[in-house]
Amino acid sequence: MATTSDISRGMILKLDGNLYSIVEFGENKTARAAAKVWAKLKGVDNKRSIEKTWNSGETIYPVRVEKKAFQYLYKDETGYNLMNNETFEQIALSEEMIDAPQFLMDGSEVFVFINTETELPIGAELPEKIVVRITYCEPGLKGDTATRALKAATIETGATVMVPLFVDQDELIRVNTKSGDYVERVKE
Q1: Which domain holds residue 85?
Q2: Mean pLDDT across the stretch 162-166?
Q3: Residue of 57, 55, 47 whose CA lies nearest to 23
Q4: pTM of the shown model
Q5: 35, 51, 78, 100: which is deepest, by most CB within 10 A?
Q6: CATH number of the domain residue 143 falls in
Q7: How many Å apart are CA 166 and CA 141, to the nearest integer?
């Protein structure tokens, strides 16, 4: 069994019948009392955020999770339909199970996390950075670059991203899917 010394960021634990992902953790040591380990947890299957404290060395119950590459196909009433790149098996995930679904494009790669105990998907995430085309944005004004001014741009997925004034319509840009921020322009 695992103990609190095995805790790491991103680990998925089973607590009270629910699955939680560790967002942040640390240890509190005092001269008088035993060390305590604390963690901020985000619910995988219930979307709750909680904090939990254990005594140092206490047993925890990690869940083994596999990360598999899938391809996004389409969205319908069942959810977001994905295909396994190795077995060509298709699954449908609800919007809550996918991090940043606003950046999904047909054919884009998605990493699905599968609980090895139940063989069921527990969540999905996009690659950290993706390349998309801007479908609409207002033209930037020349000479208006003294400050880091931003303007709204609509990308091919329909999402809106704030971009610098020098970026124009029909250009390719790289976007961080975790924060939704513009990263850089991409040459074609």
Answers
A1: 65-125
A2: 89
A3: 47
A4: 0.77
A5: 100
A6: 2.40.50.140
A7: 8
